[in-house]
Amino acid sequence: MLSEKTIRIIKSTVPVLEKHGTEITTRFYQMLFANHPELLNVFNHANQKQGRQQAALANAVYAAAKYIDKLEAILPVVKQIAHKHRSLGVQAEHYPIVGHHLLGAIQDVLGSAATDEILEAWAEAYGLIADAFIGVERGLYEQAERQAGGWAGFRKFRVDRKVKESDAITSFYLEAEDGEAIAAFEPGQYVSLKMDIPGEGNTHIRQYSLSDAPGKPYYRISVKREDGTEDRAAGKVSVYLHERVREGDTLLLSAPAGEFVLERNDERPVVLISGGVGLTPMVSMLNTLVETQPARRVTFIHAARNGRLHAMKDHVEEIVRKHEHVQVYWCYNEPEEEDNVDNAFHKHGYVDHAWLESIVSDKDAGYYFCGPVPFMRAINGALKAMEIPDADIHYEFFGPAGSLEPVSEQKPEVLSGQRP
After folding, report:
1. Which positions does the site annotation Influences the redox potential of the prosthetic heme and FAD groups cover (predicted)?
2. Which end of the chain is less crowded, N or C, counting CB atoms within 10 A of the terminal residue's CB?
3. Which run of H or E residues covers position 126?
4. Could you confirm whether domain 270-409 is CATH 3.40.50.80?
5. Positions at the binding site
6. Can 240 be counted among the known catalytic residues?
7. Domain with CATH 1.10.490.10 in the chain
8. Is there a catalytic annotation at residue 137?
């Protein structure tokens, strides 16, 4: 337990963290990697370059300070981050290293404003928070290793099949190289893929949602090729997977992880909403629902640029033909001539409140969504406008946590439902 004095000091730093949080976390990563370059084998370099990881950590530190007297309020977020840490291989011995450099960054950025009293209070608070993470992660490591078909660390999987799903997305069917059983998972979870790419100085680890139902003798991941733009470099791992990895090759996978999962005990209707490659966990959920709860009503809504970039369309429409309780709606924002001729979509433009409300027949449902952050902000806003209770709204960020508030209203908070 923290003393009242420590809590008071930590809370007094909330306005400072709101103003300087990202500057502090940017400096933190600079110092961390300069002194411990081996940790570059754990962190996503692309997220570092885009500033997403720095912003996510700044939000986490801000939330920890704001709720320091009631840390149970951020326990759901602790669990979500802990799942990612377990999948990446973060260990208890990493926490003192992180704490040392975080305090150093606070002192470096704030200068004389970071008094000894403030630094001592933050050292005490960090120790408490680190212990919470270590405890949760210890349980996750034990669970991952001891479950049927489970394992510790990374396990070798062979690429059994490589299937092109669209012009941008390819699926990889992965079977355990040792031929032994593989761990079960919940629809919506992900695995970490660890890769050593020729010519790269560091290992790269990426998380990919499992895109098929559990209970199969394989795991399936469906990867979008991230080509470069003027503002962003090409995705090293996704491009390598698309261009260089072949059937028969070996990949290293963590056991499944993640808190964004389908609530299977809920018998109410389900609304699955996705944009772009965000459909991967939604397809896992859909496949699971029709296999295990065929009488449960499902509305599947997907937004894509056009038919060429629309993955797994034939598969989902085949499910609709076979299951009368499943409805599907497609939204294209840049349809091509062939899409218009074939009546390949239901709405031209974007998923908005009016259209969403018109196609969801029963608001009393569980809502799940995933996709690019602007898409997710729009969906979240539409569901709020439909007065859907927070308890029925479930979502996940691909990559570090972000905010679903409109940009003009964003505050540095940690939101539940993300893959941190």
Report:
1. 84, 396
2. N
3. helix 116-146
4. yes
5. 85, 190, 206-209, 276-281, 397-400
6. no
7. 4-146
8. yes
